[in-house]
Amino acid sequence: MEINRISLFEIDSTNNYASNLMKSERLPHGTVITAQFQTQGRGQRENSWEGASDQNLAATWIFHFEDLKVTHGFVYNQSIALAVRQSIQEWVHQDVYIKWPNDIIVDDKKIAGILIENFIQGDDIKSSLCGIGVNIFQTHFSFPHATSLLLAGAEIASTDSFLFTLHKNLREALIHMQHSAAKINEQYLSNLYCANELIALKHNEQLIHGYIQGVDEWGRLIFTNESGAQRYQSGEIQWVWT
Ligand code: BTN
User: Fold this and answer.
1) DSSP secondary-structure letter at 189?
2) What's the confidence (pLDDT) of residue 213?
3) What pLDDT, in 10s, does the model give residues 103-133?
4) Above pLDDT 90, what percent of the chain?
5) What pLDDT does 1 receive?
6) Dihedral in degrees, nearest 10, Cα atoms 159, 36, 31, 18
7) 15 CA to middle of ligand 1, Å?
8) Taking 90 as the threshold, does the pLDDT of residue 179 lie above it?
9) Which of ligand 1's atoms lies nearest the C-alpha of 102?
10) What is the 8-class DSSP label of residue 39?
């Protein structure tokens, strides 16, 4: 498969690298930057992302959009999460889920994370850096709720084999994203981790119990319990792993 790729040995973060490049040149839509080693991999909400050396995939795709409204931003996020989910599903037998908003889960553990950084002009998302980290061959983690394709039983030869699967699925997801937000939401909900199960979340340092009912068009989590339905933005609640 033809991939426009910048392959780095070591970098602080592929998202940082892409962001700096964007200041001086317009790289083609779909360009992917990969690194064998990230020294300061970044996660969502200022967290760090610890990918162990060259055992995992660390990649950032650069996308440009002609007509993607900011109001459609969550559909874009859902499409990316679905493409990553699907790619992992192609390598493992067990069900793969999306933990709201866009962590990917296998065997009740996190296998992949997504960091999307958009360039906005007016009402439009003009370009986006879509950073994706997937644990592939790593078998020991400091975080207890993490897994990898290898631990999940995938018979995979190289991180590049996964990169090609993911590249194909991302390309298809962006084509389908133009057509049906409702269908994308339906697929997202049908793969949502712990949907309609009684779970605990942390909000303002307090445990709250209830059910994940879905997400709204702004990407807020709809969580219901005896106090009614609450809507939370990413960062307002913390996941409680059991
Ligand atoms: C998260 O789960 O919090 C998101 C993790 C995203 C990690 C990827 S690895 C490639 C790209 N470069 C980064 O610095 N972060 C993303």
Assistant:
1) H
2) 95
3) 999 999 999 999 999 999 999 999 999 999 9
4) 88
5) 63
6) 150
7) 8
8) no
9) 2
10) S
